[in-house]
Amino acid sequence: MAKSGAPDFFYKEAQRLGYVARSAFKLVQIQKQHKLIKPGSSVLDLGCAPGSWLQVACQSLGPFHNGGSVLGIDHKKVKVPTSHCDSRVKTVAADVMTLPKQQLRDLSPKQKGFSVILSDMCPLVSGITTKDAALSFELGMRALDLAVGKVASVCNSDGDNLDEVKERCDPSGADDGGLLRVGGHLVVKLLESEDAKEINQICKPLFTKSVWLRPKATRPSSREIYLICQGLKSEIKI
């Protein structure tokens, strides 16, 4: 529980409203400002423990008859919260860093991927700024790779011939190893650093819009920030 100030408010509000953690309000704000999850959306939640984002994602789908789905992945076994969730929410215990992409695709609706991918993954903070930032960057790049496939690493290559890069950086083409559908959205939690800025530079040509957000529910002592990428392009212009 937080020591003082606004974080205490979010902790108490989470208890009052039936959320399993105060982190729910981070996605509540993201959803309020950007409306990423809509009725019928298929959502993949990476690093879903303790389950608060599962709750908000399911709420954002609207009534059950609207359809949609939420799949949570975490190395811990996460029980689907009884509050704010229904049968559209499922969880799988697996290591996101080693889980085969095809296995995740097979878990998506009709094996066609997801319309929204959320990554609230964060390393165990050691207090060593550079180390923590590097680990956060690694998790962020994994989320990006799962979302867009090899496009991320290719578009980040400085040595490739520009024409070759243009040809290969196409999520709808032969390099379509990503799980995010064209037009889909990606949210990645990172720790503020130069590496985090690099991920944003990779994402800019891939999405129609990318912005940073530090949710109000973020603890004052935390360096975490969220990169919100909207509208995965069918063709990449570099």
Automatic annotation (TrEMBL):
Stored InterPro entries: RNA_methyltr_RlmE (IPR050082), RNA_MeTrfase_FtsJ_dom (IPR002877), rRNA-MeTfrase_E (IPR015507), SAM-dependent_MTases_sf (IPR029063)
Coiled-coil annotated residue ranges, if any: none
Keywords, comma-separated and alphabetical: Methyltransferase, rRNA processing, S-adenosyl-L-methionine, Transferase
Presence of the UniProt keyword Methyltransferase in the record: yes
GO BP term, pick one: RNA methylation
Keyword Nuclease applies: no
Active site: K189 (proton acceptor)
Molecular-function GO term, any one: rRNA (uridine-2'-O-)-methyltransferase activity
Pfam families: FtsJ
SUPFAM superfamilies: S-adenosyl-L-methionine-dependent methyltransferases
Domain of life: Eukaryota
Domain Ribosomal RNA methyltransferase FtsJ: 19-231
Family: Belongs to the class I-like SAM-binding methyltransferase superfamily. RNA methyltransferase RlmE family.
UniProt-recorded name of the protein: rRNA methyltransferase 2, mitochondrial
Lineage: Eukaryota, Viridiplantae, Streptophyta, Embryophyta, Tracheophyta
